[in-house]
């Protein structure tokens, strides 16, 4: 059995709204090339994405919505016919063959699921996935089909397992949360910037699930300008306590790389330190609780040159038990890609120090986050004390 498989097909790059849109799948190429240049990714590690079938997509999406996506991608609908479905908006513009491109991202995540659940590999990574804002009948936040929701429904139906979904994107994982809000066999854990300032505006600690699913939704909304220490304290406490409480059969992680200080769409002050640590703990707990079963997808990340390739590389190196890369980035990678961006690339795996000026409200932010953490975990701790 392989440690991990890396899901990728060149056609995944066809999920593209416009040349100027912040969601840019070129980050897949940048990450793969970086991993290859450090000899961490070999050709026989890569498996192709497949197209998800309409029946598979319909596990999480309304069939009428799927038909709207298909027709919109063929230019058969007007904006007035699509906008109520979240398509043709500024965030999620219409593009040619959008159904086919979206289906490939979903199918890539299903490939990852099957490889892990059929014992072909302990872990699987589909960086083209992680579109966590898509809803049952509506696109949202750059996301047409929600590959994570489809994949979790697929896990429940085909493999009958308890799934822990962990989302460390700076934006709340709303589409996945609401899809399983009443399902006791799926636990969603989202660590994100508070919705007071950031899309989608949800993800309060008071959102805990409902009906039979009450107590299986956990949200950890951090204050804007949260730095590494506070982020990692929340992450470690949340992960350890929720894993022990829920005891999943498989862990599914969404790895948005937009909590970094340089991300243009968010207000968190993370550095590359958090992206080294996030996969380490997910990997450790997957082995402790899930016999190693760990499926990971990408997500947000809008500084595609300086942040995303380094951050996502740490997931793959961790999956394969390689030492976390450090020191200089490969000169060949820097030389190749510096030609395409006016932004000076960072020369090292680590960020420059200091990366930003000191945050004047650091202590206040950390105290507010600590109170939030206590409130978010109080239900678990109350049950443990009985």
Q: Sheet bearing the most strands, described? A: 8 strands, parallel
Q: Which geometry do the CA atoms define?
A: globular
Per CATH, the class reads Alpha Beta
Helix and strand content put the structural class at alpha/beta
Overall radius of gyration: 20 Å
The count of domains is: 1
List low-pLDDT spans.
none
Beta fraction: 5-15%
Helices and strands, in N-to-C order? EHEHHHHEHEHEEHEHEHHH
Spell out the CATH superfamily: Histone deacetylase domain
Strand order of the largest sheet: 2-1-3-8-7-4-5-6
Total helices: the number is 12
Keywords:
386 residues, alpha/beta, Arginase, Chain A, 8-stranded parallel beta sheet, 12 helices, 39% helix
Please give the structural blueprint.
Elements lengths: L1 E6 L18 H12 L8 E2 L6 H4 L5 H11 L5 H4 L15 H20 L3 E6 L20 H13 L3 E5 L6 H6 L6 E8 L23 E6 L5 H19 L3 E5 L17 H18 L4 E4 L10 H12 L11 H8 L23 H24 L1
Parallel strand pairs: 1-2, 1-3, 3-8, 4-5, 4-7, 5-6, 7-8
Helix pairs in contact: 1-10, 5-6, 8-9, 8-12, 9-10
What does it look like?
The chain is of the alpha/beta class and 386 residues long. Helices cover 39% and strands 11% of the residues. The protein has one domain: Histone deacetylase domain (Arginase, Chain A, 3-Layer(aba) Sandwich), CATH 3.40.800.20. It contains twelve helices and eight strands. Strands 2-1-3-8-7-4-5-6 form an eight-stranded parallel β-sheet, sandwiched between helices. Helix 1 packs across helix 10 (308-319). It is globular. The termini are far apart.
